[in-house]
């Protein structure tokens, strides 16, 4: 598995109007509903007046983000590392490094990791949190 992009992101910094943050110092938060899924909140609505948020998402091998919707929020997935599948309504999108998917607001979708952990950047407009 090519971890170069993932390592670069995790060793990077985030600059907002406040103090710079180091990504690796941000905690992983286990998803409350989906075992094997964790998020690092890179940018939250607090920093953007609720306009958007950005999260590094880890889906462990064989695990999934089950079918769900984000009411009133568009979502952008940028696959950083690993492989899996995203389902948006009846469409199935193979996920691998370099794939980007746009998920319109209010559409049911799910993401499942394959044999390796799947990492993606998930960006929400307006902010998820």
SSE topology sketch:
Elements: H1 4-10, E1 13-14, E2 21-22, E3 29-30, E4 37-43, H2 45-48, E5 53-59, E6 64-68, E7 74-81, E8 83-88, E9 91-96, E10 100-103, E11 109-113, E12 118-125
Antiparallel strand pairs: 1-2, 3-4, 4-5, 5-12, 6-11, 7-10, 7-12, 8-9, 8-11
CATH topology (level 3) name: Jelly Rolls
The number of domains: 1
Straight-line N-to-C gap:
31 Å
**Number of helical regions:** 2
Shape: globular
Helix content: under 10%
Spans of 5+ residues with little confidence (pLDDT < 50)? none
The largest beta-sheet arranges its strands as: 3-4-5-12-7-10
Structural class: mainly beta
Description:
This protein is mainly beta and 129 residues long. It has a single domain, classed as Jelly Rolls (Sandwich). It has 2 helices and 12 strands; from the N terminus they run αββββαββββββββ. The longest helix has 7 residues. The protein starts with a helix and ends with a strand. The mean pLDDT is 95.
Describe, in short, the structure shown.
This protein has 129 residues and is mostly beta strands. The protein contains 2 helices and 12 strands, in the order αββββαββββββββ.
């Amino acid at each position: 598995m090519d971890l170069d992009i993932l390592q670069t992101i995790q060793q990077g910094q985030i600059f907002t109007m406040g103090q710079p943050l180091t990504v690796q110092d941000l905690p992983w938060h286990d998803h409350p509903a989906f075992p094997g899924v964790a998020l690092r909140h890179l940018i939250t609505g607090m920093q953007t007046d609720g306009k958007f948020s950005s999260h590094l998402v880890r889906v462990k091998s064989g695990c999934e983000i089950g079918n769900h919707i984000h009411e009133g929020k568009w979502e952008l997935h940028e696959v950083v590392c690993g492989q899996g599948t995203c389902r948006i309504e009846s469409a199935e999108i193979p996920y691998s490094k370099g794939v980007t998917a746009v998920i319109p607001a209010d559409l049911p979708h799910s993401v499942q990791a394959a044999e390796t952990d799947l990492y993606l950047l998930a960006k929400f407009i307006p902010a998820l949190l």
